[in-house]
Write a structure and sequence with these properties.
Length: 580
């Protein structure tokens, strides 16, 4: 803003010199201003809600003239020198204008005023010597013929609708939320997944009346702790009824006349949409926002084993919303499967839409790359953030370990078997029959041999695992009595030419197919002991054994072995107590 205080100081200095040097000295005469006129200009084309046009005309010759506009209902009569110098602090608009004889007046338009507001125009003209006139005043009031403009913003699921002036809301026109699934084909044409009315207690107005906040109802965070009984929510409150899904984009339509300003001007209708455009992504318009995304898990995997590797592994999602069938995977989708047998493991990387895929709204299916070894642990892992639901929420990390089993039942091990084996002590081949039946005492195992290795009335206990296809027999069991001698069963440990009974590890027989039992996992033996439990010596040491259930067809089990390879010495045997 141009200032004219310097010229005014020169005028005051000239007057002071005249007094100092007396009447003989020449001085600049002080000339007072004749004042200034303010005339409002009516312009129908002007936006009179926020604009004023007026003309300033000094009544005589002037050096400068100035004006200031203040929002005030009353004439405050500011000091003329303050207005003249452009220093009115409360002015919403002001200016200093150079007067010329060629252009003795000025028509001025000021924009950006508040509608329906009282203002005062103050004007001052300076004389040719810079002496300001008294202040002229012209009051005016802006009109309010235009509907208030709407602005919107959102943060943390709170939508803010603001206006340039105070407004009131028409509650007879309820507000509604429409929400959209960003991973659906519906959004390609702007079709929402659902909508619901916003509860009245979610809509608040600011003290100034020009800002309204709408808290969009969303699902409350789940509490793992057991909840106490609570009072049901009041009807029509935000706690009752629909809530916005996590991750969903939402829009709010405003019906015509939803808000009015103090002059009765009603807001125009606002139609809001969300559309997915190829190459551009999500394109919202109008009033919109988006709920925060969340993560979800998978339902507890009940299965612990499987016996058909070509059958897909199906996992159910435990999220609140349907899985996306159109855009199911993120760009970082990752899944693996690991086959582990003992200390050996093989890792495979699975490919989305090929090795694993979303088959419907709630299930994902994994396909195994090849057959695992029987008895192997198969671990399937899906990385967090791999699978999206229709609102863009993604999965937590998931993993499950299954046993690739034979899928047997307990009935598969019960029956009468024909067996054959070779005694490594004597080189003699033994054969005969044995019976495996349900155990009469579960604390020793779930099956028992009622006949074993030619001994009648035997009671040797074992545990059959139908998943792993194994029959484990605990070591150091006595299972038969011949006179004053007990016959025992146990695992053997070979060390050089010495052999000892293993008191820790069971003997594990395998069932590679239903009705066929084989042993090739080490050595097991039969030994004799006194009735007091003192071990006397081995009567048999075996490293190959096959038993086939009656009415079961099987290839003969063979293994290269001989008595010489056993290198059994019967004179050095550890002494242990029997299990029973």
């Amino acid at each position: 803003m141009k200032k004219i205080l310097t010229y005014m100081s020169v005028v005051v200095l000239a007057a002071g010199c005249a007094e100092m040097y007396g009447p003989e000295q020449e001085s600049t005469p002080v000339v007072k201003s004749d004042g200034i006129e303010i005339a409002l200009v009516s312009d129908d084309k002007a936006d009179t809600d926020s604009t004023v046009t007026f003309t300033l005309t000094p009544k005589g010759e002037a050096l400068y003239y100035s004006y200031a506009i203040e929002a005030s209902a009353q004439d405050s009569k500011p000091d003329s020198s303050v207005v003249y110098s452009g220093a009115l602090q409360t002015a919403v608009a002001d200016s200093v204008i150079k007067w010329t004889a060629e252009k003795p007046s000025a028509t001025i338009t000021v924009k950006g005023l508040m509608p329906n507001t009282q203002y005062q125009i103050y004007a001052v003209a300076g004389s040719p010597t810079g002496v300001p006139s008294s202040v002229s005043v012209q009051p005016f009031k802006t009109t309010d013929n235009v509907a208030p403009a709407i602005k919107s913003d959102y943060d943390a699921n709170v939508l803010t609708i603001s206006f340039p002036e105070a407004v009131t809301r028409n509650k007879d026109l309820p507000l509604a939320v429409k929400y959209y699934g960003m991973n659906t084909t519906n959004i390609d044409t702007g079709i929402p997944e659902g909508e619901f009315q916003i509860p009245e207690d979610s809509i608040k107005v600011s003290a100034s009346g020009n800002s309204w906040t709408i808290s969009i109802p969303v699902a409350a965070e789940e509490d793992d702790e057991e909840e106490d009984e609570v009072t049901p929510p009041a009807e029509g409150s935000a706690a009752e009824g629909h809530v916005l899904p996590e991750g969903a984009i939402y829009t709010v339509d405003l019906p015509e006349g939803a808000f009015k300003d103090n002059a009765g001007n009603a807001t125009e209708a606002v139609t809001s949409t969300v559309v997915y455009e190829e190459g551009l992504g999500i394109s919202p318009s109008g009033i919109y926002g988006q709920n925060d995304a969340s993560t979800y898990g998978f339902a507890k995997f009940e299965a612990t084993s499987f016996n058909d590797w070509e059958q897909p592994v199906v996992v159910e999602a435990a999220g609140k919303y349907a899985l996306s069938l159109d855009y199911p995977f993120s760009k970082t989708a990752a899944a693996t499967v690991v086959y582990k047998t003992g200390s050996k493991s093989i890792t495979y990387t699975l490919t989305a839409d090929s090795d694993f895929e979303v088959t419907d709204a709630s299930h994902i299916v994994f396909k195994l790359p090849e057959a695992p070894e029987l008895g192997a642990d198969v671990t399937i892992t899906l990385a967090a953030g791999s699978v999206q639901d229709i609102y863009g929420n993604v999965n937590d990390a998931w993993t499950a370990t299954l046993k690739y089993s034979y899928g047997y039942t307990m009935k598969d091990v019960y029956g009468t078997y024909s067996y054959s084996c070779i005694n490594g002590l004597t080189g003699q081949q033994n054969s005969g029959q044995m019976v495996i039946t349900e155990s009469d005492d579960p604390k020793y195992g779930n099956v028992m041999f009622t006949s074993f290795m030619g001994y009648d009335e035997t009671f040797l206990y074992g545990t059959f695992d139908p998943v792993a296809g194994t029959l484990s027999v605990e070591t150091l069991q006595d299972f038969a009595i011949e006179g004053d001698v007990m016959i025992g069963f146990g695992s053997l440990i070979l060390s050089g030419n010495n052999v000892s009974l293993d008191g820790e590890n069971p003997t594990v027989f395998n069932m590679p197919e239903a009705g066929r039992i084989v042993f090739n996992n080490g050595y097991f033996g039969l030994f004799t002991a006194t009735l007091q439990g003192q071990i006397q010596g081995l009567t048999g040491a075996f490293t190959m054994f096959e038993a086939v259930k009656e009415n079961t067809v099987s290839a003969k089990y063979t293994q290269k072995s001989s008595a010489a390879e056993m290198r059994v010495v019967t004179g050095n045997i550890d002494t242990h107590l029997f299990v029973r």
